[in-house]
Each structure stands twice: as C-alpha cells, then as structure tokens.
C-alpha cells in the first residue's frame, strides 16, 4: 500500500548537531494497532486501553490520528477524533512519545502535522484532558495554543469520582481555540 509520509529532523540532545534523527509521520494503519498498544504501555503515564481499542483507532480514525516512526520503530502516536456534535472541534485523546525521543518537540510536531491535514481544515478548537501529574503534556498543549494564536481555557473534564472505584485521578479538560492559523 502506498502510505504518505512526512519526514521531520529532530536534533538529539547532547549529541553533535549533525547527529539528527529522521522521524516520519503518517496515518496509522490496522497493522499498527499492536505497536501503538506497546508504545502506550511503555509510556508509563497514559491509560493503557485494550489492544482492540488501538485497532479501532488505526482502522476507523486514521484521518485524525498520527504515528511517528524512526528507524522503523514507532516512537510517537496521537489518537484524536472530530466531535460528532461539534464538527469544528478535535478531541485529542492520547499523545504518546517513546521515552528515547522525549524533549525534542515530537509531540508538538505531530499535533502541527495533524492540524495540516485536509480532515482538519474545519477545525477551530481542540479539546483534550490531562491528569495533574502530566505537566509535560500540559506544557506541550500550551505551546501548541501559542502556535495557533489561540487561548486556553481549563475546565472540569472527567473528575475522579466518575471513574469506577478509586482508580483514577481527575482529568482536567483543556479547551484551546479559536485557531488563527
Ligand atoms: C493528551 C493525553 O494524552 N491525555 C491523556 C488522557 C488519559 N489520561 C489517557 O487516555 O491516558
């Protein structure tokens, strides 16, 4: 199958400027579901959903999801969908970056690449939820809001008491937009 890819170079911290990783972005395919599941499991910060969930994302949400690969290894992933009742709003479900590739802006670059897709032409707002212990994710979304020239509102998302048992902390909702770019 002919899969469209975008290549981005990322400088590796602490190494010479010539030592760059080429990271390729593309839409997920069904065959990526297992590797996405492994990536999410290994992040240690994201909620690990069932393998079936990642197959569904790879098969049915390709246009609004993205994977990043380096040296044939999956190093990043975003799952997202357009809200059925608000077609101008993209809900970003999970952003995961492999530990070996963090702090290089790959998450931000994946978000930017996603917003450049035709499927996101009509998107003016982004919503996502982030748990209080994931400061890196919050910083990335705030940087993305700056890139869009958009404001950030923090709202109640999924409070801890809506999760089963005492199993999960609050998920705070970040509402970003309207997009200016
Ligand atoms: C943006 C992002 O990755 N949020 C995570 C939401 C939740 N904790 C999950 O699905 O892991």
Q: What descriptive keywords fit this protein?
A:
about 180 residues; alpha+beta; about 25% helix; binds (2~{S})-4-acetamido-2-azanyl-butanoic acid
Summarize the structure.
By secondary structure, the protein is α+β, with helices and mostly antiparallel strands. The protein has helices at 33-43, 51-60, 106-115, 135-148, and strands at 6-11, 20-26, 66-70, 73-82, 89-97, 125-130, 151-158, 171-177. The chain has an eight-stranded mixed sheet.
Task: Explain what the structure shows.
It is a single chain. With 181 residues, the chain is of the alpha+beta class. Helices cover 25% and strands 32% of the residues. It is built from 4 helices and 8 strands. Strands 1-2-3-4-5-6-8-7 form an 8-stranded mixed β-sheet. A hairpin with a 2-residue loop joins strand 3 and strand 4. Helix 3 crosses helix 4. The radius of gyration is 16 Å and the shape is globular. The model has no long low-confidence stretch (mean pLDDT 93). Bound molecules: (2~{S})-4-acetamido-2-azanyl-butanoic acid. (2~{S})-4-acetamido-2-azanyl-butanoic acid (9YT) binds next to strand 5 and strand 6.
Topology readout:
Elements (H helix, E strand, L loop, with lengths): L5 E6 L8 E7 L6 H11 L7 H10 L5 E5 L2 E10 L6 E9 L8 H10 L9 E6 L4 H14 L2 E8 L12 E7 L4
Parallel strand pairs: 5-6
Antiparallel strand pairs: 1-2, 2-3, 3-4, 4-5, 6-8, 7-8
Helix pairs in contact: 1-2, 3-4
The structure holds (2~{S})-4-acetamido-2-azanyl-butanoic acid.
């Amino acid at each position: 199958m002919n899969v469209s890819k975008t290549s981005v170079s990322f400088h590796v911290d602490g190494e010479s400027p010539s030592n760059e990783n080429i990271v390729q972005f593309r839409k997920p395919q069904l065959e990526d579901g297992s590797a996405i599941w492994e990536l999410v499991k290994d992040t240690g910060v994201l909620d690990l959903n069932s393998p079936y969930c990642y197959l569904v994302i790879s098969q049915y949400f390709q246009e609004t999801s993205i994977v990043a690969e380096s040296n044939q290894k999956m190093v990043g992933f975003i799952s997202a969908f357009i809200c059925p009742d608000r077609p101008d709003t993209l809900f970003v479900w999970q952003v995961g970056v492999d530990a070996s590739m963090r702090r290089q802006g790959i998450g931000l670059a994946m978000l930017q690449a996603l917003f450049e897709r035709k499927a996101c032409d009509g998107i003016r707002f982004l919503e996502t939820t982030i748990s209080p212990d994931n400061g890196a994710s919050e910083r990335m979304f705030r940087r993305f809001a700056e890139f869009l020239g958009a404001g950030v509102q923090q709202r109640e998302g999924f409070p801890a008491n809506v999760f089963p048992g005492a199993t999960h902390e609050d998920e705070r909702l970040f509402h970003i937009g309207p997009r200016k770019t």
